[in-house]
């Protein structure tokens, strides 16, 4: 099945010939190779580029093992550049090549070479590598299918049915090729253990992965919950019956983020206008992978919806923080008390911002008051939105807060800062 990834294809097309190395990143199996070798290559051919001027190497393929040697790869590419016309160099899983920065930088000054690479390890985006690229690396972050992309597969009778499946099995592109639920479950379980965990163990030379696996289970069970390494250390002691240092936990969390499996959302004090480094929240790049990890035992609609909303915001290019707003009130005894109210997401794009609260349902006036309370105490002019489950009609309430059902939100890919 051909799945259009128009957002990413258009971004790639917009940066052609810009003198920079285009670096396509994202979790393994999210569609980077398909984007580069199928969609982008076809767009080149459709626009008149001769196929012999497209140099592509799948470095993950065993047949390309010799090309993982940096000098051999350089010789191979150079051997295919035989005239002064533009050549498009497409390299998949470039992190498998030692000193890949040197290889890529070798083409920065060659005017008829336009370089595109994919990679699944965020090491290639760290500050030292960006220095190696001399500011001439352009990152395009690819995610699993968004809900709007998922809908375009045309497999569902209704949008609500599609959302229910999306919340359970997520948006890894291969999922849409399976009609049987058991095959979907087996694929995701195999992908998690056979690809992601194995990659991390090999990359960081981890021999005993018991603690890493336990940590993943704890994070998966607590998506959308504030936590920090010290809290996680205490959980190991109380629940798992043994100790693991917060330093080790921090290291493991970094590995999961490097593999693009989870993302960390840092807490921000809205009134104080400063970041609070701990505690933070962790969200899975794909909820289907999270559910498979827990063997589909914890299908909590509220937490899954929150994770999906976070992912959608990141797909749309927002930086996303977890918010808190301080409120001072008086209790029944007339004593002044200080409360910290949580805002699920603070979304920033340039000089614009919006605040989002996720609520699976709001069946009563008391629940509506609870879910909008923190937003009502933010005294600025930026948009404030509560996203709710189901098919509740979207509207704006008397406080100026937008109430939007989750399907409308996920479908409205052009939604700007209202």
Automatic annotation (TrEMBL):
Gene3D superfamilies: P-loop containing nucleotide triphosphate hydrolases. This is ATP-binding protein. It comes from Bacteroides uniformis. InterPro entries: AAA_14, DUF4143, P-loop_NTPase. Residues 198-357 form the DUF4143 domain. The keyword DNA-binding does not apply. Residues 20-151 form the AAA domain. Keywords: ATP-binding, Nucleotide-binding. The keyword Metal-binding does not apply. It holds the Pfam family DUF4143. SUPFAM superfamilies: P-loop containing nucleoside triphosphate hydrolases (SSF52540). GO terms for molecular function: ATP binding.
